[in-house]
Amino acid sequence: MRHITQQENTFLLSTAHTAMLLQITKYGHVELLHYGMPVSIEDAAALAARRTMPYGSQVMYTEEDPTYCLDNIPLLWSGAGKGDFRISPIELELPDGTITTDFIYDGCTLRAGTLPAVGLPAAYDESGEAETLVLSLREKKFALRLEIIFTVFPAADAITRRTVLYNDETVPITVRSLMSQQIDFPQREYEMLTLDGDWISETHVHTRSVQPGRLVNESTTGFSSNRHNPGVILLEQGTGENTGLAYGFNLLYSGSHYTAVERSPRDFVRIVSGIQPQGFCWRLPAGEIFRAPEAVMTFSNEGMNGLSGNFHRFVRQHILHGNWKEKPRPVLLNNWEAYFFDFTEAKLLSLAKQAKAVGVELFVLDDGWFGERNSDTAGLGDYTVNRKKLPGGIEGLAQKITTMGLRFGLWFEPESVNLESELYRTHPEWALQQPGRQPSMGRHQLLLDLTRPEVRDYIVHHITHLLDHCPITYVKWDMNRNITEIGSATLPANRQQELPHRYMLGLYSILERLVTAFPDVLFEGCAGGGGRFDAGMLYYFPQYWTSDDTDAIERLYIQHGTSLVMPACTMGAHVSAVPNHQVHRTTPLQTRGHIAMAGQFGYEMDLGKLSEEETELVRQQIRQYKEIRSTIHFGDLYRLRSPFEGENTAWEYVSADLKQIVLIYCTIHAHVITGMTQIRFEGLKENAQYRNTETGEIYDGDFLMNVGLYLSDSKDYATKLMTFELC
Ligand code: DGJ
């Protein structure tokens, strides 16, 4: 094995620029000797030597060794009730009614490649470089086994891990909590960075100092949520955008999640993350297995930019898959903000014609094409096409659009049902609800019970039918409400709390069937915008609608925050009309175009309302975007200025071959006194020259990086998009 080495009880997991060193202690616990900069397995002795703490009020694991207190050991797995008083990654109700667990090492296997997960998304590898270490642990009193499955992805500097619990007892146990990952860091000062928000204000960056006690980043909405994205970053004090130590954690999971960062009295910092334990309880019968979702961690000594670069590579190479993984994605026009529910076939065709004329490649019909769906109060759950709006059905419309030379895409919201729908009238029992309790409505709809095979089949059948019979090459998969009153007639009372996770397993199985059957269809996820924009969803959907907020200035914050954990090729970003319908702000069309070009570019407006001059600008924007999209999506991002820290924003994209540079710059608030910002570039070739493709001016790479260019800040909301080519 090249990236995982074992020497007796010590294991070294190495990526290109990071290393994790583990050691099985003399009593069988998995100690973390180091995670961060590269080390060698010979360093284990030096790193293990630190454990000489005295004990005061500490509990000794055994009196044989008074310094061996679980509370003071940096562990990769702990338990409850044995003297480690930090947050436990596991809480079980055992056959004797207690919750104490003591899992100790019982062997390992090393293998090349990944170990496929069952029923859940998991990172995969095509490079032939990934290696897997499975640590087997056994509970000291009960016949329970744990596997901790680590996979190393060397080029992405990422290590994934997941936990699998086997109940070998003859009676059931209850899993109250089983985290996907636990890691303990040594004594240092850290800050925790999270991405928080709400609908139309996703992924705003917040940092807080990790003080004694616990900080929690969690979702309780049933989904990964727009409130708190599951991605969490730990920064060593003083770490900035390009320098310092940064550790990143994320989950490949789309349900409610939980990450706790706890600083112990001895100043160790523990992070655990996994399925949200609140409202979760899993009865594990004798002989059965529970699998926690996969978690990923990465480290960089090049600050947040280095860290997010790792996340980007990891997501692009090991999460996104299918035929669209590395293909340039089409420029789209979505009719939603143009017409909302008020459209006819004639209006759509006229919009499509205008779209084609300016260079759009994909026309997307959003909500409102089926059942009695003339507002969001009715029709969801039905798939019968509204022939008043579309006399030729979806097939007729899709054919006409395809004949124009455009691809055709269609919106679905398959997980929900309106009470006012044929589906609900026929199958009220298919909705998640609790008998005797008034259901709380979210956008006038209930969620379907995806644990029922007949519900999953109904969804797969209808979508398959449309994809089989119409030339649909893109699907927007929307979901617009949080989970409340979760209940299913299919589960007994003592299993109702399994439902949130079973819902996700049901959803993943639907998605697996569809993406496998239609590998050429481009899927874009959406949950009222970024309400479920997580690495689990990206396993099925190579792109995601980042936010329903299409105001260019708001998007600076949302896209900047999202870029900390997700690459640009996953972020849907559209130009919409002004004044913006969410925030009523008016920004120039140029600005809206430039900021949307930092993601998967498209338009969401009535092109017929544009002046000739504006139409020409749209044509130019699309032309320009096609020239730079590969660099933006698959190159390296450098965040040169953050909207969270100043009055302007600058994002630089460098193509993998260093031949094309794109700079997107936006002044949020103009400054009459300074009026200029000096922007230093990053990541260029030092001894090379770059030509500004618009002005023809030539600059040395060193000059652009060490001195930089002065950009004007004389106008609110003004942007500049500059491209440079290697001479
Ligand atoms: C919410 C999505 O985020 C919007 O883009 C749009 O598709 C609407 N749903 C349609 O109801």
Concise overview:
The protein has 727 residues and is of the alpha+beta class.
Which helices and strands appear, and what pairs or packs with what?
Blueprint: E1 4-7, E2 10-14, E3 19-24, E4 30-36, H1 44-48, E5 90-93, E6 103-112, E7 131-139, E8 144-153, E9 158-167, E10 173-185, E11 190-196, E12 204-209, E13 213-218, E14 228-236, E15 246-251, E16 257-263, E17 269-275, E18 282-284, E19 289-291, E20 295-300, H2 303-319, E21 332-334, H3 336-339, H4 345-358, E22 362-365, H5 393-403, E23 407-412, E24 416-418, H6 422-426, E25 445-447, H7 453-469, E26 474-477, H8 499-517, E27 522-525, H9 535-538, E28 543-545, H10 552-562, E29 571-576, H11 589-596, E30 600-604, H12 612-634, E31 636-641, E32 648-654, E33 660-667, E34 676-679, E35 689-692, E36 698-700, H13 701-706, E37 709-712, E38 719-726
Parallel strand pairs: 21-22, 21-30, 22-23, 23-26, 26-27, 27-28, 28-29, 29-30
Antiparallel strand pairs: 1-2, 2-3, 3-4, 5-10, 6-7, 7-8, 8-9, 9-19, 9-20, 10-17, 10-18, 11-12, 11-14, 13-16, 14-15, 15-20, 16-17, 24-25, 31-32, 32-33, 33-38, 34-37, 35-36, 35-38
The structure holds (2R,3S,4R,5S)-2-(hydroxymethyl)piperidine-3,4,5-triol.
